[in-house]
Amino acid sequence: MRRPLIAGNWKLFKTTAETVAFIREFTPLVKEATTVEIVIAPVFTSLVPAAQALEGTAVRLAAQDCYWESEGAFTGEVSPPLLRDAGCSHVIIGHSERRQYFGETDATVNRKVRAAIASGLTVLFCVGETLAEREEGRTFDVLKGQLAGGLADISVADMKHLVVAYEPVWAIGTGKTATDQQAQEAHAFIRATLAELCSADTAAATRILYGGSVKPDNVKGLMSQPDIDGALVGGASLKPDSFAAIVNFGG
Ligand code: PGA
């Protein structure tokens, strides 16, 4: 059984005070959602206060990126062991905004994924095609390349600590969600590719989240698809009531 996972990616939003205020308001709203794994990803500077505010709740903490070395002369970077030290259990790697604006490649994503898993973090590994790639009919090729590149040298045992997030770039922050069918088709392809790259058992056990304009009013349809195991939510995760409504999709 794949446990549903709903993660909020806050990107470059919220001060420390706003983060703590969100947590105080949000956690009581999702107390009943015990079957869902809930994760929030604030900015680096809010991770420690967020971890303190989350103590005693079931909500887990993620960072939005990490470096692959543990320590050294790497100005500006944050490593997986330091994320663990800050109270993170999860980390987002390979988000399309990192690929698009910060020069991340499948090779750097792969190094980060391996380092994060080695440090005991669970990775939310993002893949997804651009609008141009979809219109050229290259969606599956792009996804396959990102999966093969990003997951190179990841063992079957490591895959237990990895969640895939399918995020079509054209649906992120645009209000344009993939239809339930478009998302399901991509998720089924990703699962089939995981079976090829890893094993059938790994593919069946790995959770695949959908991301891209997930809102309270479209989450139910997406979650009813057989290969959609959760959501990675940007904009709609910034307000306690809308994120709670997404987490509580089952009623
Ligand atoms: P969005 O962002 O929900 O605002 O489209 C999703 C994401 O980038 O993870």
Give an account of the 3D structure.
The chain contains 11 helices and 8 strands. Helix 1 (16-29) runs parallel beside helix 2 and helix 1 crosses helix 11. The protein has helices at residues 16-29, 47-54, 80-86, 96-101, 106-118, 131-135, 139-150, 180-197, 200-205, 219-223, 240-247; strands at 5-9, 37-41, 60-63, 90-93, 122-127, 162-166, 208-211, 230-233. With 251 residues, the chain is an alpha/beta fold. The model has no long low-confidence stretch (mean pLDDT 97). The two termini are 20 Å apart. Strands 1-2-3-4-5-6-7-8 form an 8-stranded parallel beta barrel, surrounded by 5 helices. Helix content is 41%, strand content 15%. The radius of gyration is 17 Å and the shape is globular. Bound molecules: 2-phosphoglycolic acid (PGA). The site of 2-phosphoglycolic acid has 13 residues, from strand 8.
